[in-house]
Amino acid sequence: MNPRFAAGTYRCRDVLRSVTAAVDAGVTWIDTAPNYARGTAEASLRPLLDACPQVGVSTKVGFVPHSDRQAAQDAGVLPYDGDCGHCLTGPYIAWQLTRSRVRLGRAPDIVFLHNPEHGPADRAELSLALREAFEALEDAAASGRIGGYGVATWTGLSSGMFTIPDLTAAAEAVGGSRHHFRAVQFPVSLVHLAVVADALGGHGALVAARESGLDVFASAALGGGELLGAMTKELVRVIAPAASPAQAALLVALSAPGVTRVLLSAGTSAHWTDALGAASRERLPPGHLRKVIDVVGT
Q: To 10 degrees, what angle do helices 245-255 and 286-296 make?
């Protein structure tokens, strides 16, 4: 079993084939969302989840997939009639959770609030929206409809729209000291090294997450596959001379302080075998990571 990777489904052409290859290789977690694979990703996973109850699964709430928009409007859970693609209100989140549970065939272990920075335009308004969303998620966790919840963000932390302490404070406000806020998900990679540099300096999102006891899911570890084209022989040599380009890139995310799991979308067994070779290596020590940052920059 390999707990250091999670099978992502964002860019998968064949979701079931990809995650089956991942689980066969020993991956123990799958990450998905209602809007992935044109709205089909969650349902595609059900046969594997039914057969592998030991595999953890996380999904997301917040986006309004085009395939679900009319149903949401008919259910009266969207507070608008226009073509807005994001919603953080309690009724919509509760409705989306119910659909996700049916599609997955079981309660998700973690539900991430999906890119909340796409909602309200300023921090004050976003803070109120986060509180309402967390209330819905806390209620779902308390009743056993989900295992716990978190926040998956692309730019929310790096832009300063919110911080890890902001998120934990919101969770404590709605759930008390025994809240169910469990995890965060954000980019950590060779093209997102600022967060790693911050952690090596003893501050930033990775440090705050670790101090709060949160699991960190590192997303975009290969930049959607585009990073592989930038892995020159010289860069691989700086990171890990005996590694493949994919292994060297992944090793940076795997070695970042506080990272619990690295998300990866890989379509074949060969790709997963190569990737898991990175997880079998020793993590890069802080001094080595600093050298990589000096070479690549932030």
A: 120
**For the chain, what percent of residues have pLDDT higher than 70?**
98
**Can you list the domains of the chain with their CATH numbers?**
5-296 (3.20.20.100)
Instruction: Report residue 74 as tokens.
Output: 């008919």
Which amino acid is located at 74 in the chain? D
What pLDDT, on a 0 to 100 scale, did the predictor assign at position 84?
74
CA 168 to chain centroid, in Å, comes to 17
Adjacent-strand bridge partners of 152: 114, 185
Give CA 277 to chain center in angstroms: 22
Torsion of CA 147, 149, 152, 157, to 10 degrees: -150
Which residue, 129, 109, 105, 106, is CA-closest to 118?
129
Dist. CA 19–CA 64, nearest whole Å: 24
What distance in Å separates the CA atoms of residue 102 and residue 221, rounded to the nearest whole number? 30
Q: Is residue 225 within 8 Å of residue 264, measured between CB atoms?
A: no
With helix as H, strand as E and coil as C, how does the chain read?
CECCEEEECCCCCCHHHHHHHHHHCCECEEECCCCHHHHCHHHHHHHHHHHCCCCEEEEEECECCHHHHHHHHHHCCCCCCCCCCECCCHHHHHHHHHHHHHHHCCCCCEEEEECHHHCCCCHHHHHHHHHHHHHHHHHHHHCCCCCCEEEECCCCCCCCCCCHHHHHHHHHHHHHHHCCEEEEEEECECCECHHHHHHHCCCCHHHHHHHCCCEEEEECCCHHHHHHHHCCHHHHHHHCCCCCHHHHHHHHHHHCCCCCEEEECCCCHHHHHHHHHHHCCCCCCHHHHHHHHHHHCC
Q: Tell me: the pLDDT tens digits for 261-281?
A: 999 998 889 999 999 999 889
pTM score above 0.85: yes
